[in-house]
Amino acid sequence: MSEPTTLYCYAHPDRETTLRCKRCERPICVSCAVSTPTGYMCKDCVRQRQKTFDTALTQDFILGFVVAAALSGVASFLATFVGGLGFIGWFLIIFGAPIAGGIIAEAVRAVTKRRRSRALFLTVGAGVIVGALPMILIMLFSMNLFGLIFQGIYLFIAAPLVYARLSGIQLSR
Question: pTM surpassing 0.90?
Answer without folding.
Answer: no
